[in-house]
């Protein structure tokens, strides 16, 4: 923990008092002073970094960070990654990383970022840096405030009054929220939705029969579910995220990331250069593996998919769900469809290959001088048409996603963001060129389809949402006409 705290202090350290500009009001000066005294070595920040790392990062990322921290906790390891900067004139002549002065620690970190032979150490530092800055600028106190926000001019309304919500949430009639169920109530809730449910007490399994089971409710899964349900098929959708309505969300960055994104928005690539933001909402069940049997009717597809086994994420439910269907559709997205197929025994070499990411750079503006006497915030509200005359087209308004201070600090300088992942289970004319055929059906298993961004053969040049929806719309129409 000492090594982690020492790294956090290098990332965000107190500013010298002579670097502050005194030309501010008393209130502003006080907030700037609080900001300048902030240090990421504060005990709460390293602890939260550890929590985020263990709960959200890939196994490989956790191993890299553990290796780096283990090296830095010993004198020999510090000598290996720091060189002569860890030398001291007193016994034992070599300092551990936590014993080195802050100025030299900065130089050591700069060395990690420059030299290629220290790539594993650099990756470990990048992971820690991203988590440290995310925590520092997004955590809030009991008043839902962060000491840095006023100093950097960031304001968020935490007491927004939402419009009166409908009595019944969208999809409520057809949803079973497993997070609110128990072993005793689950079967009854499923049967109330019109499902054919039986229990296998010996194997502790709850069997559900339907026409179509769809794993994932995102851009592709939602469209497929709508088309197939409209055609008269009995459709079951599995989703591991929670179901949030508009009134459930907060404008606070930290809680919103937890609710909206896979791994809370902290999902870096293994090289630490891209932070992946993949949505994860609705549901409460996680698919474990697909069910297959031998297919004696078709030579090319030797397996036949019978459904999926799912684990409920609610600890009050010990039963597993075995959903048997005529058609099984994986719509887990480009990141999670390949692991599901591979863990279920499929061996097509294109599964998990050819992943494409859209790297994104976030733009920001800094206005150190304010020449206007007008009160208010220049980044809120509509356009004053009395001041700005719009043109004849619609391009004078550009709507873009906002970026909170925590995410901005984590990405700043050397990390891209990516909300678009494509092509990891691509469509091909043969099993040598793709993982699925032109109908979205697996080359290895009859009755198993993929309906998400992973089937795209390559990256599209725009936001892929409409492309995914259009492609899945066509595939779902074909699937509906097949049985």
From TrEMBL:
Presence of the UniProt keyword Flavoprotein in the record: yes
Record's keyword terms, sorted: FAD, Flavoprotein, Oxidoreductase
Residue span(s) of domain Glucose-methanol-choline oxidoreductase C-terminal: 417-469
Top-level taxonomy: Eukaryota, Viridiplantae, Streptophyta, Embryophyta, Tracheophyta
Organism superkingdom: Eukaryota
PANTHER family, per database record: LONG-CHAIN-ALCOHOL OXIDASE, LONG-CHAIN-ALCOHOL OXIDASE FAO3
Name listed for the protein in its UniProt record: Long-chain-alcohol oxidase
Residues in FAD-dependent oxidoreductase 2 FAD-binding domain copies: 211-245
Family assignment from sequence similarity: Belongs to the GMC oxidoreductase family.
InterPro entries linked: FAD-dep_OxRdtase_2_FAD-bd, FAD/NAD-bd_sf, GMC_OxRdtase_N, GMC_OxRtase_C
Signal sequence segment: none
Pfam family, one: GMC_oxred_C
Gene3D superfamilies xrefs: FAD/NAD(P)-binding domain (3.50.50.60)
């Amino acid at each position: 923990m000492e090594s982690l705290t020492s790294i956090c202090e290098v990332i965000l350290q107190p500013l010298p008092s002579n670097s502050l500009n005194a030309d501010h009001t008393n209130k502003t000066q006080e907030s700037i002073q609080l900001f300048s005294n902030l240090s990421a070595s504060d005990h709460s920040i390293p602890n939260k970094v550890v929590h985020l790392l263990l709960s959200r990062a890939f196994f490989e990322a956790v191993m890299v960070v553990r290796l780096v921290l283990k090296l830095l906790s010993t004198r020999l390891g510090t000598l290996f990654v720091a060189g002569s900067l860890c030398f001291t004139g007193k016994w034992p002549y070599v300092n551990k990383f936590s014993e080195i002065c802050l100025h030299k620690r900065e130089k050591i970190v700069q060395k990690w970022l420059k030299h290629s032979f220290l790539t594993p150490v650099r990756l470990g530092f990048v992971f820690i840096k991203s988590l440290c800055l995310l925590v520092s600028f997004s955590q809030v106190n009991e008043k839902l405030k962060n000491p840095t926000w006023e100093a950097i001019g960031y304001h968020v309304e935490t007491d927004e009054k939402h419009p009166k919500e409908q009595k019944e949430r969208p999809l409520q009639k057809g949803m079973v929220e497993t997070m609110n169920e128990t072993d005793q109530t689950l079967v009854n809730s499923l049967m109330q939705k019109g499902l054919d449910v039986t229990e296998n007490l010996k194997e502790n399994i709850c069997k559900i029969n339907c026409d179509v089971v769809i794993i994932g409710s995102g851009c592709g899964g939602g469209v497929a579910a709508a088309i197939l349900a409209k055609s008269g098929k009995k459709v079951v959708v599995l989703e591991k995220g929670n179901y949030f309505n508009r009134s459930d969300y907060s404008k606070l960055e930290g809680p919103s990331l937890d609710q909206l994104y896979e791994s809370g928005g902290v999902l870096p690539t293994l090289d630490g250069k891209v932070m992946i933001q993949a949505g994860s909402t609705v549901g409460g069940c996680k698919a474990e593996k697909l069910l297959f049997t031998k297919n004696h009717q078709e030579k090319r597809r030797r397996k036949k998919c019978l459904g999926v086994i799912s684990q409920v994420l609610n600890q009050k439910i010990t039963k597993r769900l075995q959903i048997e269907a005529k058609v099984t559709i994986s719509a887990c997205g480009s990141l999670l469809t390949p692991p599901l197929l591979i863990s279920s025994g499929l061996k097509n070499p294109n599964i998990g290959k050819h992943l494409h990411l859209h790297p994104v750079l976030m733009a920001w503006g800094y206005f150190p001088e304010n020449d206007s006497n007008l009160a208010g915030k220049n980044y809120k509200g509509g356009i004053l048409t009395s001041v700005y005359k719009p043109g004849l087209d619609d391009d004078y308004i550009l709507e873009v996603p906002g970026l909170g201070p925590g995410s901005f600090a984590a990405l700043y300088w050397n990390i891209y963001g990516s909300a678009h992942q494509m092509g990891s289970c691509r469509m091909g004319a043969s099993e040598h060129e793709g993982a699925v055929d032109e109908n979205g059906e697996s080359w290895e298993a009859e009755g198993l389809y993929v309906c998400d961004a992973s089937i795209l053969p390559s990256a599209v040049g725009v936001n892929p949402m409409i492309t995914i929806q259009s492609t899945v719309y066509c595939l779902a129409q074909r699937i509906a006409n097949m049985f």
